Amino acid sequence: MDMGFSASGKELDPRNPDARIQRALGLSCGAFSFIERKDDEEVYKDGRQQKYKDGEDTSKDWICLRSKANGEPCGERNFPRNEKCFRCSGLRQSNAPLVKDYKPNKIDGRKF
């Protein structure tokens, strides 16, 4: 190693993704870069397909029942972690049905 090795990472552009990764890993000296493989994109697509092969898990999602101005329920599907409806900003009701238990009526017209 030469004397300038410890200062060699200082000239990296802080906006560069490689520099950010190096800083997060504590590799502040030296020039490191990640090597792109030919099959990276294919591996990514295969992983996504494997993860979502059964579709999205909506079993714990809840349905907003807050009334709109015209008296109809909002009826929007929300993720379990949300305490407010993303559409109408209504708070989650204690009796809000889960998607798996929700039976939309003819007026509602929604299909889950």
Automatic annotation (TrEMBL):
Family annotation (InterPro entries): Znf_RanBP2 (IPR001876)
Domain RanBP2-type: 53-94
Keywords from the UniProt entry: Metal-binding, Zinc, Zinc-finger
PROSITE patterns, per database record: ZF_RANBP2_2 (PS50199)
Metal-binding is among the record's keywords: yes
Keyword Zinc: yes
Gene3D superfamilies: Zinc finger, RanBP2-type (4.10.1060.10)
Protein's UniProt name: RanBP2-type domain-containing protein
Source organism of this protein record: Durusdinium trenchii
